[in-house]
Amino acid sequence: MRNIERSIPWVTIPDWHSARLVGLSKKTGLIRARMRGETMFLGHAAKGGIGPRLAAYRSPRGTGQRHHAGQMLYKHRFEIQMQIAPLDGPAEAILQMLAAMLDDRVPSWNVPYGHRRSI
After folding, report:
1. What residues contact 82, with CB distance under 8 A and at least 6 apart?
2. At residue 111, does pLDDT exceed 90?
């Protein structure tokens, strides 16, 4: 399944922690955070838009702070390479793509439902 992740047209957002996220407010797709060459997090913006999702991760009071992955993304925001893959299509298709990647492996910041990790 790792071929799925490799075949996705990832786009790096330079300085994502402070960049203006113009044109991404309604764009759906996948999100990937990499640090030291390793994928640390895989996520999606299937309904609310990539821009608002990234804004939630980089804000100290954003909704991303409610979850382990969001806390880690914020904590390491200056170290990680944030990538997005804008995708057209129904939310279900985007979620299926993400599920296929997560079935193969769970990046260390992704936490399966029902489990908690300490920071």
Report:
1. 12, 13, 16, 17, 31, 32, 33, 54
2. no
